[in-house]
Amino acid sequence: MSEKLNIGIILGSTRDGRVSPQVGEWVKGIADQRGDANYEIVDIADYKLPFLGEGDAPGIAAWNEKLDSLDGFVFIVQEYNHSITGALKNAIDLAREAWNNKAAGIVSYGSTGGARAAEHLRGILGELMVADVRTHPTLSLFTDFENFSVFKPQDIHGENINLMLDQVTTWSRALKTIR
Ligand SMILES: Cc1cc2nc3c(=O)[nH]c(=O)nc-3n(C[C@H](O)[C@H](O)[C@H](O)COP(=O)(O)O)c2cc1C
């Protein structure tokens, strides 16, 4: 068996008071128990990315290096106006080759489980040659959070996270052979 895969759990929101770190840590907790890959939280906010075309901040190179080091991704996606956040779209646009021929899973949340945002993301990932897996855990702001702010996931979601990770790791390993 070859060396362990590196899978980044990308937090899609950057606003003050965001809940994405709670969701990302929960996914990482489940993932780490599997022992099949190196899982790490990748926080877009850490890179202080400018908008595309508005300067060459050092964060852009650091962001691309981080993506380069990863074999696959789990996107923590929140629904903003029926789509992904502007921060996530900008971060996606700030890299190109570093995304290509890798796999991704999506964990989304919102009033309808973030489904509309997740479907938008799938279209974007197709353009970047990222293979997005089928299983897609959807978390409800109404039943998986208290007061829309404290993450209390229902037990049923854990099984779906593992199914999604099975698919992400299998495809990440397969795609590594063609890079
Ligand atoms: C600008 C904005 C637009 C939003 N639009 C939607 C929406 O269209 N559908 C939805 O289900 N939730 C919507 N929400 C609610 C967010 O999904 C919810 O606040 C979630 O916690 C945001 O993720 P975050 O806390 O990680 O930033 C919106 C929130 C914001 C800030």
From TrEMBL:
Signal sequence interval, chain numbering: none
Q: Domain of life of the organism in this record?
A: Bacteria
InterPro entries given for it? Flavoprotein-like_sf (IPR029039), FMN_Rdtase-like_dom (IPR005025), NAD(P)H-dep_reductase (IPR050712)
Q: What terms describe the molecular function in GO for this protein?
A: FMN binding; oxidoreductase activity
- Could you name the Gene Ontology cellular component terms for this entry? cytosol
Pfam families in the record, alphabetically?
A: FMN_red (PF03358)
The NADPH-dependent FMN reductase-like domain, residue ranges:
6-135
Question: What does the similarity note say?
Answer: Belongs to the azoreductase type 2 family.
Please report the name of this protein according to its UniProt entry: FMN reductase
Species for this entry: Robertmurraya siralis
